[in-house]
Amino acid sequence: MNNSDKFEYSVVRSRRKSICIEIDRDLNIKVRAPLRMTDSQIQSFVDSRQNWIRSHLEIMQKRISNMSDEKNPSTALTDADIKALSEQARIYIPSRVEHFAQIIGVTYGRITIRHQKTRWGSCNSSGNLNFNCALMNTTPEIIDYVVVHELCHRKQMNHSALFWAEVEKVLPKYKELRSALKNYRC
Questions:
Q1: What is this structure's pTM?
Q2: Residue closest to 147 by CA, chosen among 185, 86, 92
Q3: Fewer Cβ neighbours under 10 Å: the N or C end of the chain?
Q4: DSSP character for 77?
Q5: 67 and 86 co-located in one domain
Q6: Do 164 and 96 fall within a single domain?
Q7: Are residues 48 and 115 in the same domain?
Q8: What does the radius of gyration of the chain's CA atoms come to, in whole angstroms?
Q9: Where do the H-state alpha helices sit in the chain?
């Protein structure tokens, strides 16, 4: 992680020719840069775009806030709720990951539990898994679905037919669970 006076950001270098800034749904800032661009050049670029970053973060925060208010304002999680759910998830979810990783035949890296506003889970190309602590407000079957979904990304890093076939091997009724998950909010 790099830090620009007010913004923490990650850098992804690739064989691209230009530099760009992306802000994801969880308000994480990612700078995509050419392989040969130096850290100081990247820092200068980020510094020159601080107003753009600030305005886009504000816009996205308002959108997320409006979406949360519209969905169900009475179910907003307090800091105490998030702490309690995180503690439960840190105990429960890793055991489910270990169980299903053996069944699927995959390995994984680090497991991170945190509160996210828009995602139930994610898996990166290094095999690190992220899970939303709010999963603890769902059912054990739905938690298993999210765990299996993320572990299947270790075989298919997309949502192709091959990916869903991997999920279905482990959870034949995954479509029902996927549908049920939509009744919950992060």
A1: 0.61
A2: 92
A3: N
A4: P
A5: no
A6: yes
A7: no
A8: 19
A9: 39-48, 50-71, 79-104, 140-152, 161-170, 174-181
